[in-house]
Amino acid sequence: xxxxxxxxxxxxxxxxxxxxxxxxxxxxxxxxxxxxxxxxxxxxxxxxxxxxxxxxxxxxxxxxxxxxxxxxxxxxxxxxxxxxxxxxxxxxxxxxxxxxxxxxxxxxxxxxxxxxxxxxxxxxxxxxxxxxxxxxxxxxxxxxxxxxxxxxxxxxxxxxxxxxxxxxxxxxxxxxxxxxxxxxxxxxxxxxxxxxxxxxxxxxxxxxxxxxxxxxxxxxxxxxxxxxxxxxxxxxxxxxxxxxxxxxxxxxxxxxxxx
Length: 259
Hints:
By secondary structure, this protein is mainly beta. It has 1 helix and 14 strands; from the N terminus they run αββββββββββββββ. The protein has a single domain (2-258), classed as Porin, CATH 2.40.160.
């Protein structure tokens, strides 16, 4: 037990050092850069105190890197979440591709891939219904500047999903509304997300086992801390409540990015 606690403390210290080193590297890079056109490639990493996905606890303190390429309305990239806790075996590496129509309507296809990092081997290219890939389509209305109400709908269409008693796919579905507003230097977003279905045998699905239900309600607040004239660190705090599970979290995160 003492050895495990020591290992966890060491990993938490390493995470803190990585954040500080990344911040120092970003500061140096931005202070020495010349005037150039913005690159279509974005590299960034979020450091979060908890990984909560659509109101569902998905891991402890984690680093969540992104590699993204965007040109015009087209974008493609990869996103991952890797826990610093030695007790969190399941990690995530996703791919996505999409298109944004006039920055108002965005269609995205996500390939969620969950894997057990303690396993001896795994088959990444296995896309069967019993493997670790889940394919989802997401349609999102980004909202108007005069009325910043966003709406999104997501459906799992292929890969791993839960099954009904007759063997058919559940097609796990989720919808969410958000309202963005600002006060001073802080930006806020109120959100409410709802699972639309679950397996008909009352077993737990992606979001629970009670069919249509509110699972993700809360508020996000974000603000950038100015370090120098050319470098700032965006900070974020989310209060998230899952009414279906009666769970609540306060999540802190910071972002480092370059493009």
